[in-house]
Amino acid sequence: MQFCGFVGTFILSRCLAILREHLLEKVPVSEVCDKHGVSVVNFYNWQKQLFENGQSAFDRKTNSANAKRQQDANAVKIEKLESKLQQKNEVIAELLQEHVELKKEIGEP
Known about the structure:
109 residues, 71% helix, single chain
């Protein structure tokens, strides 16, 4: 995997190691760049790219097991909602039937 537009020059792991040396070990940028033969401009471009694309490291990856569990949970939820809707429809039908019968008893059209 290439990084920061340097085709064949630096691979991702080396760029990250250089950035890590500064960010975690608190080695000054100038020392890190001199040590690894990297220009300061390139270092800051790498750092910018890391922070702009860092969210992808935390994005939730879907796998088939998670997707299947989610589908199963959704299917159960849909089934429960359909059952609840059917019960409500039955209650409404009963109430309407009783209403019609009461109207007939008291003689309303």
